[in-house]
What does this fold into?
Amino acid sequence: MHDLSDIQNTWFTAKVNALPKASEVVKTIKRYRAKQIMKSTFLILLSLVLAMVMIYVVFFYQSNMLITRIGEILMLTAIFILISANAVSLTRISRSKNYSNNEFLNYLKQEQQRLLSFQKRTQATGFVLSSAGLLLYLFEGVYRQPGLMIVTYVFAILFILVCWFIVRPAAIKRKTKKLKQAIGKLETLSDQLKND
It folds into this structure.
């Protein structure tokens, strides 16, 4: 009989206000999917516009130096990396439409692992290519004027450093936090359903 009173005490003292409601979890899943689809679609469209501008510059800007062409190629390569990474992300999130809660929870955990891989490899590669491309591309326009060249490169390098050391970590932290919150809500609900 002692076991029954322990179960009753546990039952009556359990805090259920911390558990997410099922409708809240469904909203979270739908909101997460919609934001990811919008973000990936926007980034693909923006990247395509940037690629068109770069292709226009390649064909209509008559550069005299090979270094400028190398910079253009590096920036175009970075743009195509961005397009392909977001296209893959868009197809992955599109396939998750009919997932159950547990399947979506597994998807989010895999997404967390992919995010780490993306940050270490794809994002770093694209950032290095675009930064090197920018620095090479700027050279032809400023190399004849040392003062302008120094100012231009100081601002360009400061911009690159701010993006790498401030903007990028803040974006990673924000994305990781949102992903952990979504995983936490789904795990809580999943654990509740397993215990019932």
Summary: The chain has a mean pLDDT of 86.
